[in-house]
Design brief:
Helices cover 73% and strands 1% of the residues. By secondary structure, the chain is mainly α. It folds into 3 domains: 185 residues, MFS general substrate transporter like domains (Growth Hormone, Chain: A, Up-down Bundle), CATH 1.20.1250; 58 residues; 209 residues, Growth Hormone, Chain: A (Up-down Bundle). A two-stranded antiparallel sheet has the order 1-2.
């Protein structure tokens, strides 16, 4: 794990320069937020436009989930090998082309290809963390907090804007991302270069094993509730995926011979292990819930016995308002890490998230009561997303910053996929007259609360840091 390269000597970086760099990074990350937020109201409304059914629409969402999981380690690894700024420019360029393609020529095929291109946003934060850590390591936590804050607020804003603009024609909603794409692409040329790329080759066999393994694993989890857990297709995809992932882990954990895809030996660090495990369960317990949240808010209480009958636009407004809380908590996370410590901050985020689901269980009969729980949910969301990402690169060599951040993103993506599969399993087993039963919802909230507590327990394993190690 010793450093193979050293950052080039640089002149002292001024506070104004750092502030400008973080601002440019935040603007780039706004594209990630918009593209992740604006698809939620657009894709479900494309059925009549493209003459496609719900399974096809769900298939597009599945392709997006698989692409996120596959591209996360690839883009991050390329950043360490060939340069953070170079790979970031290519990533923003691909996303920009995808955005324009979907807006100018909306069709089933252009949207499907565009959704894959949009998932290149998964590399934005790992690549920008690499630049920031080389240029000013002391500001890494602050920069990550700002980027996550922008991500959180723009996910809500993107969905709201797409819902408003696409109210008569959902394809018009694709234009929401166009100005953000142009701005992000320009900002990718404003950011300074950082570090010396390792130019280390990437082993093809582990790369293919990781990519194909993730595809098989995510497909099995996503489609099992529809195909059946014992269906041949589910079993084949799941077993093949797990076998390939096991081969990848064995190859990349090896300390001898040849190039690696990702240096998984970094998991030998207790810090990295604790953060990766906590991130997995945070993703499981939080982002996998958004679909159920929309179903609950939209449900007619006269038919289902729960819910508030909110329109899609009203739900988008609720999400946009809640994202403000995620913005606030993420911006305060760097200060919380410094004042209260890494372990205490992440444990609090896990307990707060579990408490949010407990409030939903107790007070879901009233809109104000449920909103209190959802507010706690979003406060935890911003806090853990900023905290785990900032800590995921501390303690690893500078030239592996992007890879370490990508490993954390991978843990998040897989956690979301597993959580979504569990939620879907509970939902499928608790359906009456086409609706999830109230007991099914209570089971979902209970399962996610347990996952949040496991995230808190994993966070408690993060080692205490000596005073001399505490970042500014």
């Amino acid at each position: 794990m010793a450093s193979k390269t050293a950052p080039p000597p640089m002149a002292a970086t001024t506070t104004r320069t750092i502030a400008g760099m973080i601002l440019a990074m935040a603007l780039i990350e706004s594209l990630s937020g918009v593209t992740q937020g604006y698809l939620n109201p657009i894709l479900p409304a494309l059925g009549p436009v493209f003459e496609i059914d719900d399974p096809t629409i769900n298939g597009i969402f599945l392709i997006s989930n698989v692409s996120f999981a596959v591209l996360t380690p690839i883009i991050s690894r390329l950043g360490d090998s060939y340069g953070y700024r170079l790979v970031l420019r290519w990533s923003t360029g691909i996303v920009t082309v995808g955005v324009f393609q979907m807006a100018l020529w909306p069709s089933l095929w252009t949207v499907t290809v565009g959704v894959v291109m949009l998932t290149c946003v998964v590399g934005f934060i790992p690549l920008m963390m690499g630049i920031l850590r080389v240029r000013s390591a002391a500001h890494t936590r602050t920069g990550v907090s700002v980027m996550i804050g922008m991500l959180m607020i723009m996910v809500g804003a993107g969905g709201l804007l797409a819902g408003i603009i696409g109210v008569t024609d959902p394809t018009l909603g694709f234009w929401v991302a166009v100005p953000f794409a142009v701005l992000a692409f320009i900002c990718s040329f404003v950011l300074p270069d950082a570090g010396i790329p390792t130019r280390e080759g990437i082993a093809l066999a582990p790369l293919l094993a990781c990519s194909l393994g993730l595809i098989g694993f995510v497909v099995a989890l996503s489609m099992a509730p529809e195909w059946g857990w014992l269906d041949t297709r589910t079993m084949a995809a799941g077993v093949a995926g797990i076998a390939l992932l096991a081969y990848w882990v064995k190859r990349d954990f090896s300390s001898t011979g040849g190039h690696r895809f990702m240096d998984l030996r970094m998991l030998a660090s207790q810090r990295i292990r604790a953060i990766s495990l906590a991130t997995f369960f945070f993703g499981f317990a939080s982002i996998s819930y958004f679909g159920t949240n929309g179903i609950f808010l939209h449900s007619n209480p006269d038919k289902t016995g729960y819910g508030f009958g909110l329109s899609p636009l009203m739900i988008a407004i609720v999400l946009a308002l809640a994202s403000v809380l995620s913005l606030a908590s993420s911006l305060l996370t760097a200060k919380a890490l410094r004042k209260f410590g890494e372990r205490a901050t992440l444990v609090f985020a896990g307990v707060l998230l579990a408490g949010a689901f407990l409030v939903m269980v107790v007070a879901h009969g009233s809109l104000p009561g449920y909103c209190v729980g959802f507010a706690m949910f979003n406060l935890s969301l911003g806090m853990y997303q900023a905290g785990t990402r900032a800590l995921s690169v501390e303690g690893v060599p500078v030239e592996e910053t992007s890879t370490a951040a990508g490993l954390n993103e991978l843990a998040l993506s897989v956690g979301i996929a597993v959580g979504a599969a569990v939620v879907k399993l509970i939902s499928s087993a608790s359906v009456e007259s086409g609706h999830i039963t109230e007991s099914g919802l209570l089971s979902i909230w209970a399962a996610l609360a347990v996952a949040a507590l496991i995230a808190a327990a994993a966070s408690a394993r993060y080692p205490r840091r000596r005073a001399a190690e505490v970042a500014a």
